[in-house]
Design a protein that fits this description.
Blueprint: H1 3-17, H2 21-34, H3 40-51, H4 55-59, H5 63-85, H6 90-135, H7 141-185, H8 195-209, H9 220-249, H10 253-292, H11 296-318, H12 324-391
Helix pairs in contact: 1-2, 2-3, 3-5, 3-6, 5-6, 5-7, 6-7, 7-8, 7-9, 8-9, 10-12, 11-12
């Protein structure tokens, strides 16, 4: 590395650690013109871009243009790293992930700042309002009016702070989703990135999305773009995992075949047990029908006459004070129906008890067998999971 480049790097790093990110960026760009292959200046330049993000970038009038500029600069810089190192080099993926981790830290810091500022403004408003309530009667009217004007100003600040906080959170989520999609879209060789590293991206997107659960932030558009981002990451994770599995078993074909045979055996046993359970359930259902079906006519008759009885009761209750004869006549009919209801109840209860005595032991035995088979099924699932864990490199 040239002496000039070393000196420039030292100056740029000093500015970076002094948080003069704009000045550091300028020097890194000078270095990049001299060093055509080195990636370190490019990586630090992206760190500077990320670290220079501020709350104002998200709430100013031209915030959309500002964030779009950041997004383009970071995206093109990531691409430059790939061009400099080569897309088949593990180092470029590691560089991207390190940059993204720094990006996440900045996003969370921006959000935390917005939250703390909003809380401070609200706290100031609440304390001011409480003070006015407490001393309102003990101070001159003119002074009280002055205090009220100040409280109104604090209330407006609360509204502005809340609005800014909502805007910031929405834009942070969108910004994060776009950067992650850029990374995912540029993964061409899944031998360079592990499924665990892809999962890290998934967890970060979910974490940023859940920075705040407010309905005013999680609107339909944000939910949809986040869902698309998470789906893209999940697809990438599947590809990375498939590559890992393929590589792992490349030199172990015998063990892989052994596990696949055991898995097939378990799957066949699984199907056989399910068939037995279904058959037993059908038999139990038929036996229960043998108990209940003979009384369908009697049950229907009981429902009908109970309905008729209720109608008569309503009719009787609607009669006036001087309708004694009509009430007696209706009560007689009500009582007659009650007798029939009682007879039907006795008949159904007695005869159903006989059928239960006949069929219930068989039903209980079949239900017991179903429970046994279900336990066998659970044991089999556990065995299958052990095989799948080794076969598909599943983690605990």
């Amino acid at each position: 590395m040239e002496q000039k480049v070393i000196e420039l790097l030292e100056k740029a790093n000093e500015k970076y650690y002094d948080e003069d990110y704009s000045g550091a960026c300028d020097i890194y760009q000078q270095i990049l013109k001299i060093e055509q292959k080195s990636c370190e200046p490019m990586i630090y330049m992206i760190f500077c871009l990320i670290r220079s993000l501020s709350i104002d970038d998200f709430v100013s009038q031209n915030s959309n243009e500002q964030i779009a500029k950041y997004q383009i600069n970071i995206g093109s810089s990531l691409d430059n790293i790939k061009d400099r190192i080569g897309k088949d080099n593990k180092e470029y993926i590691e560089s991207w992930l390190n940059i993204y981790r720094d990006f996440i830290d900045v996003i969370i810091s921006c959000h935390s700042y917005a939250v703390s500022y909003y809380k401070k403004v609200v706290e100031a408003y609440q304390k001011g309002a409480e003070y006015v309530m407490r001393v309102g009667r003990d101070i001159p009217y003119q002074q009280l009016q002055q205090l009220r004007l100040q409280i109104n100003e604090l209330e407006k600040n609360c509204s502005i702070a809340n609005n800014n906080y909502v805007i910031i959170t929405k834009k942070l989520i969108h910004f994060n989703n776009n950067i992650v999609l850029h990374i995912i879209d540029n993964i061409e060789n899944y031998s360079l990135i592990s499924s665990a590293e892809v999962q890290e991206l998934f967890d970060s997107v979910a974490k940023i999305y859940h920075l705040d659960e407010g309905e005013n932030i999680h609107n339909e558009k944000i939910a949809e773009t986040t869902k698309e981002t998470l789906y893209a990451i999940q697809c990438a994770k599947t590809k990375a995992k498939d590559f890992e599995i393929k590589e792992y078993w490349k030199d172990k074909p015998e063990r892989k075949k052994e596990l696949e045979d055991i898995k097939e055996k378990y799957q066949n046993e699984h199907i056989e047990i399910q068939i037995k359970i279904k058959e037993l359930e059908r038999e139990v259902e038929q036996l229960e029908q043998n108990i209940n079906k003979p009384f369908e006519v009697d049950e229907a008759r009981k429902r009908q006459i109970t309905y008729n009885q209720n109608e008569l009761i309503k009719q009787k209750n609607s009669l006036g004070l001087f309708k004694g004869k009509e009430k007696v006549s209706l009560q007689s009919k009500i009582d007659e129906i009650q007798v029939e209801i009682n007879q039907l109840d006795t008949k159904i209860k007695t005869e159903k008890a006989k059928l239960k005595d006949k069929y219930q032991p068989t039903i209980d035995e079949k239900n017991r067998k179903i429970k046994e088979l279900e336990r066998e099924l659970e044991q089999l699932k556990s065995k299958e999971e052990i095989i799948n864990k080794e076969l598909y490199l599943k983690e605990d």
